[in-house]
Amino acid sequence: MAAAAAEEKPAKSGGGAKEGSNLLGEPTFEQLQNGRFRCVETGHELPAHARDSYAHSKRCRVGLIDYGLAKKKPPLNMFKQDPLNSSKLVCKLTGDTINKSEEHIWKHINGKRFFNKLEQMEAGKLPENGKVEGKGGQQDKDGSKAEENGAEKKKKDKKEKKKKEKKKKEEIISEVRDSPPDSDSEELDKPPLNMF
Hints:
The protein is of the alpha+beta class and 196 residues long. The chain has helices at residues 2-8, 51-55, 58-71, 102-109, 112-123, 150-178, 183-189; strands spanning 29-31, 37-39, 45-46, 79-81, 88-91, 97-99, 131-134, 137-140. Among the domains are: 24-72, no CATH class; 74-126, no CATH class. A hairpin with a 5-residue loop joins strand 1 (29-31) and strand 2 (37-39). Mean pLDDT is 77; it is low at 1-13 and 130-147.
């Protein structure tokens, strides 16, 4: 009975490769005159025995991502460099900021939001070129606002309505403060007459 329970539990592999860890493949090397090798994508020179360890290093993996961004190779053609942080990427489709690692890129392009936006773009609901979606809605390249989706538009309308109400209240208060004394206000200042 204990043997059957041991067979049902899947074995956990602690040292296994992470999902998406080799998303961009292996780097390509060219041999130099002195017997050393140079990575074509990153330009790093190394001895022959260090090629395998270099291919799995963080420096090489980030270099491959930078090379893929510069050459607009898939799947990196859907991303651009984050202008505020050199270790992050911004998805052109969803506007999300993600870490510059193959695992995070893999998770993002296999995520629900990415697939939904991709389907909308393919169906023609989202404009493909010339639009960049950010936190403030979609914008043209020149910075002008484009059509916003329903939820964002409702939020914006609600904010505008609150601003208008606040402005109306402020106008009424300022009118009351600035108004000349009327006969009504004088009556309030006088003591009440005795009715008895």
